[in-house]
Amino acid sequence: MSQQVGRVDTLFLHQTGENYLVVVERDGERVFRAVLELKETNAGPRPAKFRVKRGSSDEPRDPSQFVELARRASRIRISQQTAPSAREELKEMLDGYQLEAVAVRTCRYCASSGRYSPITEETAIKADRDHICPDCAKRELERELDFSGAGSLTGAAQDRLEDLLLETKDLDRIENLLKGGLDPDLTRFDTVSATTDDIDLVPTSSLDLHPKLQGLTEDRFDTLLPVQSLSVDNGLFEGRDQLVVSATATGKTLVGELAGIDRALKGEGKLLFLVPLVALANQKHEDFEDRYGDLVDVTIRVGASRINDDGNRFDPGADVIVGTYEGIDHALRTGKDLGDIGTVVIDEVHTLKEGERGHRLDGMISRLKYYCENRAKRRENYGGAQWVYLSATVGNPEVLAQSLEATLIEFEERPVPIERHVTFADGREKPEIADKLVTREFDTKSSKGYRGQTIIFTNSRRRCHEISRKLQYSSAPYHAGLDYGQRKRVERQFGNQDLAAVVTTAALAAGVDFPASQVVFDSLAMGIEWLSVQEFEQMLGRAGRPDYHDKGKVYVLVEPDCVYHNTMEMTEDEVAFKLLKGEMEDVMTVYDESAAAEETLANIIVAGKRAKRLNDRMLGDVPTKHAVGKLLEWDFIDGFEPTPLGRAVSRHFLSPTDAFRILDNVRNGVEPYDIVADMELADEER
């Protein structure tokens, strides 16, 4: 047999019960394996039986063949997992033939399978009370994934788990992570460090503001924050349009406030402060009333105006108008007089990249610029508006600033470090894990004396209530389905540290002012769509405030192989690592036929034959000729005049598809409530 085997590199011996497993290797490959049985003789232990394993059967061989193989071997190794007495027996037997053997640490799983796999302190991975090789540990991890129902975990998630396995060298800890374990050393994906740029801070005493605003500002601050100082140094108070890109809680909102309030007090036109959501408009309206109410008149205009435009809350003569994009756009589409506008602040300008809301913001900006330019032509003492665009997250800031014809003010400082964590759980387990995280965070205090508080983001209003009910510490749901008073009560309670957590929808992520130290993602979806990198970064940026916390914490709870709608092409574990590793998307507005028709119709209503000029300066590429043709075909316009149908469609922000759905239902005698139900179902299907 030795002639058939040829050269032997390693002969490996491992105890199996009363006998010994023999593995013969050459060039790192197993040549064969056998079972050796020893007997006691007058000369000491000697081979008694030697059986070569062939598949499921054993082939007996002359015991002397073992000795011949051992003599041909370049090295003989004995597994350290072999009992000490058995190791001594093997060494005594080999000494009788003047052969030497070295005891080595090996993988027990490999040895049991007839493989020689030495391990070292650097490669050994703890598994229960034993240590195994990395390959066996990975196979055990795969078996655990299959057993736990996470067998379809995507490549990025499996790579992450395998990296953790090699880092920790502890299979048990990784398996615990798959069961929702919260060991921060294991769950931590990375830490986004706090950064500080060297900026010369502008003293507030050096500002040339209206005396009333100057005094108020100096009472609040000795110096401006870095991003505010950069803005002032780059022409904020000289009327220069600016795109201000800076992380959450760095103070960029004050840039727009100071410019707008100052111009309003100096009689240079009112301030329009625009946000994407009604909840944000209400919050900002209250902030302006509290802060500047003694200096200026503040009013609010939101999208509900298109349903009930009685003007109860809206005063067009006010010095400051806080509004939603849609609320101001409705005023433009219906020919309302907004007065002389001195400053327009567009908060969350990255909304330009969003599907339905993006093209409407793009169109509204163009229409509002046309309104200001047209008014300036008619009024000698009105020079038009200054535009200030604000965003925490933009992938292409230079390009966007150029498109908006604005000076880019970019400040990349993060005021506090943020730890980002990932753990795995199914949908039923996530509230339990969130509860542990909320409890742990609320039981801690920062060096500034504030208890840790949590924002939990999920993907539906129903889920907000479900999670909130399962949290042991005080918490509250917070979403657009609550009325204004209910939301203000939650905001006040959170600000007073009476709540350990709020559970909110991803749709309310932008600008919601909760000073939280921790953000937990129960879901990575917004409705039935996965979050973008930009949305994800915006939301996790809510974790950690410099005046409250020493650091922020973000926990992403991942359900392997989960989707929230059958139209989703990726699974939650795949999305999680795409978001954590992803690059910020560019902000651009894309127009399909429906969006192009909607904005062109609104531009015709506002500017008539000049609509093409408004289309041409929008960020997105609007095919004006085709859009006009479709509007004529659909009887939304007659020449460059809107028809009554066109006006109704535009003032209610209907897409052509929705407009025709309503028309068909009306013509078929469908009851109004049934039409509304039909529209809701259509929205869910989309």
TrEMBL record:
PROSITE patterns for the chain: HELICASE_ATP_BIND_1, HELICASE_CTER
Domain Helicase C-terminal, residue spans: 432-588
Sorted UniProt keywords: ATP-binding, Helicase, Hydrolase, Nucleotide-binding
Xref: SUPFAM superfamilies: P-loop containing nucleoside triphosphate hydrolases
Pfam name, any one: DEAD
Domain of life: Archaea
Molecular function as annotated in GO: ATP binding; catalytic activity, acting on DNA; helicase activity; hydrolase activity
Domain called Helicase ATP-binding: residue spans: 233-412
Name of the protein described by the UniProt record: DEAD/DEAH box helicase
Species this protein is from: Halopelagius fulvigenes
